TrEMBL record:
CDD domains: M20_pepD. InterPro entries: Peptidase_M20, Peptidase_M20_dimer, Peptidase_M20C. Belongs to the peptidase M20C family. GO terms for biological process: proteolysis. Pfam families: M20_dimer, Peptidase_M20. It comes from the Bacteria. Its cofactor is Zn(2+); Co(2+). GO terms for molecular function: metal ion binding; metallodipeptidase activity. This is Cytosol non-specific dipeptidase. Residues 208-291 form the Peptidase M20 dimerisation domain. Keywords: Cobalt, Hydrolase, Metal-binding, Metalloprotease, Protease, Zinc.
């Protein structure tokens, strides 16, 4: 299957991507990919080091006649989001990603593809391998754990890098040049509850919400895609209001930075309400599907009779948490007043897990304005504290403030217009990029971000456009051949 990928142009980039995708590289489990990258750099005879947190730095001297140019840091992250469809049998810890070409795009077989940020990593590897490309001195920085905390960028100490310019290869539209991004904070609400014996005379149902689009909780949060946890909560709330539905368990969503696509719950309802419950449930499910028919046409909502569980959750806690999830904000909270069409602040209710006396709700709150981020986080905290949860805020990371006077921005915009006879979009994004964190220890470094076109990141629908990879590679090579002269 991957042989078809290795034949794509540019061959050096796609072959490195295929090699990389054969290596398990989940966030916080990057041991194998770190070893892979260390061996890669050492095999080229280049200076290859690993810092104390696991970031890999490979240095390559300037090509002849380029010694007088400013040193460039090429930066991408090694980890990828591991997500798969529930019906896909795949072990991320032992299997390489199965890739295929579909209508001009490369995608994976029922799993995330790892184009985020594997395409950036592969392009940097191709630059390091090449004996023909013109470039200044390069410091290739491969960070770890970008997707679940950016701890690699946070752990990189000042003074390790000597570069003047940083090219972050981690954005997802090939006509955009990124000069800013949002910061974020992880919010976790949790509590224990008493399990009560399931009443007699009930029927049990397994309720499923699936088939949603999902996507990146930063880049896609404004698109109106359904959130499986919010939809499930609507169903459970109405079931309780009308028929006294009791919850035994909920398992919804996954990673904080992925809009949840699926949720399952086991509930019980008095047998005498079976027919009425089924009728009202189907009516509500039909209404919700109509709401989302444009953005999520494949949404499936079902309730199947299942075995009666031994226990249900404490009634008072059930009422409190369903109301809290209903009240908790999900989606866009505020748009930027200074940059058109830019989401300023948002929240993703990413994970809901209720089982065996413990409940947990996990959110990722993002904003390009620190005070707005804290405002929304406090609003969410208040929702969950009111129903008896303890709330933890952690994983704070800063945004990256745009610099319209960036010297490297002028190089990129001019080169883009020359190569593609069009003007690039100079933007800030609502995703979290590592530039803001790296800039804390390297405040004088001139930073920019760009990349090929990637859709559906953080979901099994993730795909990268083949033509955009050609465009991205051409752009990257020309930038490196035209970097500024040292002052």
């Amino acid at each position: 299957m991957n042989s078809e990928i290795r034949a794509l142009e540019p061959i050096s980039v796609w072959n490195n991507f295929a090699d990389l995708n054969a290596v398990p590289r989940a966030s916080k489990k990057e041991e194998q990919v770190i070893a892979f990258m260390m061996a890669f750099g050492q095999g080229l005879g280049l200076s290859t080091t690993k810092d104390e947190v696991g970031n890999v730095i490979i240095r390559k001297p300037a090509t002849p006649t380029m010694e007088n140019r400013k040193t460039v840091v090429l930066q991408s992250h090694l980890d990828m989001v591991h997500q798969k469809n529930r019906d896909t049998k795949f072990d991320f810890s032992t299997q390489g990603i199965e890739m295929m070409v579909v209508d001009g795009w490369v995608k994976a077989n029922g799993t995330t593809l790892g184009a985020d940020n594997g395409m950036g990593v592969a392009a940097i590897m191709a630059i390091l391998q090449s004996n023909q490309l013109q470039h200044p001195a390069i410091e290739a920085l491969f960070t770890i754990d970008e997707e679940t905390g950016m701890t690699g960028a946070q752990g990189l100490k000042g003074g390790i890098l000597k570069g003047d310019i940083l090219l972050n290869l981690d954005t997802e539209e090939d006509d955009e040049i990124d000069i800013g991004c949002a910061g974020g904070v992880d919010l976790t609400a949790s509590r224990s509850y008493k399990e009560e014996e399931t009443p007699s005379g009930v029927m049990a149902y397994q309720i499923s919400v699936k088939g949603l689009h999902g996507g990146h909780s930063g880049m896609d949060i404004h698109r109106g895609f359904g959130n499986a946890n919010k939809i499930m909560n609507r169903l459970l709330f109405e079931g309780f209001e009308s028929f006294g539905l009791r919850i035994a368990s909920i398992d919804g969503g996954g990673l904080r930075n992925a809009i949840p696509r699926e949720s399952e719950a086991v509930v019980v309802v008095d047998e005498i309400h079976h027919d009425a419950f089924a009728l009202e449930f189907n009516q509500l499910a039909s209404s919700i599907k109509k709401e989302f028919k444009v953005m999520d046409p494949n949404l499936v909502i079902s309730a199947e009779v299942t075995d009666v569980p031994a226990f249900v959750m404490e009634l008072g806690v059930q009422e409190g948490i369903t109301r809290a999830i209903y009240a908790a904000h999900n989606g866009v909270y505020a748009m930027s007043p200074t940059m058109e069409d830019l989401v300023q602040t948002s929240n993703n209710i990413a994970r809901v897990k209720i089982k065996e006396g413990k409940l947990k709700v996990m959110c990722l709150t993002r904003s390009s304005v620190e005070s707005s981020k804290i405002d929304l986080a406090n609003a969410l905290r208040s929702c969950f504290e009111l129903c008896g949860c303890s709330v933890e805020l952690k994983g704070f990371y800063p945004g990256w403030n745009p610099n319209m006077n960036s010297p490297i921005l002028k190089v990129l915009t001019a080169k883009y217009e020359e190569l593609f006879n069009d003007k690039p979009k100079v933007v800030a994004c609502h995703a979290g990029l590592e530039c803001g964190i790296l800039g804390q220890n390297y405040p004088e470094m001139d930073m920019i971000s760009f990349g090929p076109t990637i859709k559906g990141a953080h979901s099994p629908d993730e795909r990268v456009e083949i033509e955009s990879v050609k465009k991205f590679w051409k752009f990257l090579k020309e930038i490196l051949a035209n970097t500024p002269i040292k002052e």
